Every structure is written in structure tokens, then in C-alpha cells.
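Q: What does the assembly look like in three dimensions?
Context provided by user:
Components: two
Sequences:
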Amino acid sequence: MAFNVQAELRATGDLGLIIEREAGSALIIDTTEHKQLARIDKLGDLSHASVVFSRDQRFAYIFGRDGGLSKIDLLQDKLDKRIVQAGNSIGGAISQDGTLIAVSNYTPGGVKIFSADTLELVADIPADYDNGKLSKVVGLVDAPDQRFVFSLFDAGEIWTVDMSTPKKPKIEKFKNVGKFPYDGLITSDGRFYIAGLFGESGLSLLDLWEPEKGIKRILPDYVKPDEQLPVYKMPHLEGWAVADDYIFVPAIGKNEVLVIDKQSWKLVKAIPVAGQPVFVMARPDGRQVWVNFATPENNKLQVIDVKGLNLQSTLTPGHAVLHMEFTPRGENVWVAVRDDDQVLVYDTHTLKEIAHLPAQKPNGVFFTSRANKIGF
Amino acid sequence: MKKTLLLLGISLNCLASEPTSVRQAELRHLLKNDCGACHGLTLKGGMGSALLPDNLQGKPDEFLINTILQGRKGTAMPPWKAFMNADDALWLVQQLRKGSQ
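A: Here is the predicted structure of the complete assembly.
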């Protein structure tokens, strides 16, 4: 293995990746210097992509739309390994101990689990239901005790997989969790898994401390499918937001952010916002929640004041605001603005733009600080 | 002969209502980004089904136009009529059938 002799000594703790959707490439960036360090090409179809990081924060794993799983070496600015493991995939997760990478696939529907080191297949878990049909899998997250949790969109099920013995995955299935779970999140303590439902109202909750109690349906009257506005983009629950004992989630088919009490699981407030929320993300200290929107309101970002549970500010970063990522302690937020070919950096206290970086059709920003967070 | 005239009639009709080049660029942008969010940048499918020429074979224009404008109940496909008219939708269907993005 030849090291890049020109590379400077580099720590990876404040690095990150910007995904370039159409070019199929990723930029390695320094979040302190606000600068691009390298571009990694030939990563396939990244029209939908997500990233997890190894616990030593040296490697990034990119999950692409086309089933591609790419391992990037942030120290050497290079693609370390790449496989195409399915026809069509949506996301992934890294195990608690960092040794396993799980990918959720639409085609063929299921989860595949790989060695984080070699990307060799460790376990193949088809999402079978209804006598051999395969369901699209969404909302895949890591959970404590070396588990993964995910939802079956077509089957309406939630599964947990215990990978303590990698050769013998232990699968537990929860059925009839609701129609069309479209994404899932896990709280930062790794206790609660929540799936959002597209086909009926409410959300499905699984307490991983007491899985024997089964699925609890929360907010069963919110939002009924016949009240739904057309959903031009599925919301993402990956950027869950928990702040001040509240969970903030996008209302599907309604221009609202829902605030749910984490003790009673009741709706505290529905905050009206500019459009249909896509990402609803808490600043790491929980003082603010930032929201972006589906087309045609995707030129805006709104900031919710968590203390008052109301809108604090509306920003207009540019055309097609697709994703955002906070620096580890939340003083900055990086915002991918696809159609302006740039990523903007805001000061979250003053709400002023402090830097911008060029990027080709950026649709995602991911920092290495994710390496140390459950559910990322 | 009759068939040729009929075909000619249809294509003239399409030409007459074809979106302007500016509008075509907007529609291509929408196809790539908004349709692509579910159907994939390469239209090989995702949450939504694949939209390559082979996948559309046997599905009449009216059905596809209707799906685009009205959406499909019981699936994640929303109605796009707030963003385009029937001529726009027909033009998109024609592009999809040609396999051009």
C-alpha cells in the first residue's frame, strides 16, 4: 500500500464528506478550515446516498442508490474498496462494535451484512413475507447489544437482528406494525425505535429495553391518509431530533413539525412550517431544531426555538436545500444546496452565513462525529 | 394509407402542443431531481418503479399521463398536476419511452 507522499499529517476528527449526486463523487472536507481536501470519483449512482464512519474515524462507508457500498480512506484520499451488493438500496448502518456494516435494500428486498474491514458478506437476510414475497427495507439503524433494527415497507413489519454471533443472526419479527413504514429512527440512548407510517396515521414505537411488550402505536389520529397533502418527497427520520424530552418529527403530508412528549408519547404541539418537512434535525445541544422541505418549498430552511416551541427564523439559502449537518457541538451547520452547486456554512447562533464551498449538485453532508453516535 | 395519415395526425398534434425549449429544460430538471428522488437518477427504480423503456412497454400513454398527473392511490406516487399540464406529461412520457433523460 503506497502512501500519498504529498499528504499532510491529518487527524480525521473534524473531517467529513459531501456527496455529489450526479457526478457520483464525494468531497473530503475539513470542517474547521471550511475547505475541500480531495474528491473521490466513480462511486456510482448517488441520487440517494448516506454515510457511516468507522469508529476510528478513518473510513467512511457510502451507501449508494445502485446498491454500491464504497469504503473511503479519509487519510489517504482514496477509495479503499467498493462492491455492488444489490440492485437498488437505500441506506445502511455500522454495528455497535464497528466490525459490521449492514445495508438495507429495495431490490432484492432485504438486509445484507458485511465485514467492515474486508466488505465480505457475513449475513444475507431476505425480507420475506406473505409466502416468499420480498419487501423493500427502510429505516435501518444500529442498536445496542450488537443489534440492527429495520422496517419492511411493503410488509408492515419491524425486525431486529442480533449479530452477537455473526454466523448465526438472531432475528426477531414484529408484524402488523402499520401500513407502509417509510423510515425509522432510534433515540440517542438506543432505547426507542420509531417508524413513521405512510399508509396510515401515526407512528410505530418499539421499546428495545422491553421488546416483549411489542409495538405501541403513537399519534394514531395524526395524519390520516385522506387528510394528507400530496407527498412530493418522503421525509427522513434519520435526522431524528430529541430535545428537552421532546421528539420532533416531520408530519407526513402536512406542513407541520410534530412535537411528541417522550414520556407519555402524546402530541405536545404541531408547529406550522413553510412546507412539507424532509429533515427535522436538532442542534446537538437541543436548543434549536432545523427543518428543510420538499419541493416547491425547498429553497427554505426554518429554525424552531425549542424553548418556546415556535418558529425562530426562516432562511433562504438557495435553490434545492437538500440536507444539513451540524458540527459536533453545533456552532455551525453545513447546508447542501443542490441547484446552486454549493454548500453553505451557517453560524447557528447568529444565523449568518460564514462560508461557502463549491460542490457539484450536493445532496448530502456527513461528518466523522457520526462515528460515535448510536443510530448514525 | 389511412394508418399513415392517422399517425401523421397524432404527431402533428403532438408537435403543436410540445412544450417550449425552456419548459423542456424545466421538465428535464424535474425528471432528474423530483422523479429521480424515488425512481432513481438512472430511472432504474427505488421507492418507485423502474421507468426505463422496457418497463413502460405495453402501458398506454393515457395511463402513464394519468399516473403522472393524478398519482396512484395506495402507493407513494403523488399527483404532479400542480406542476405540469397534460402536454408536459405527454412530453415526459415520450422522453421516457426514448430512454433519454
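Follow-up: Residues 29 and 149 of chain A are 30 Å apart (CA to CA).
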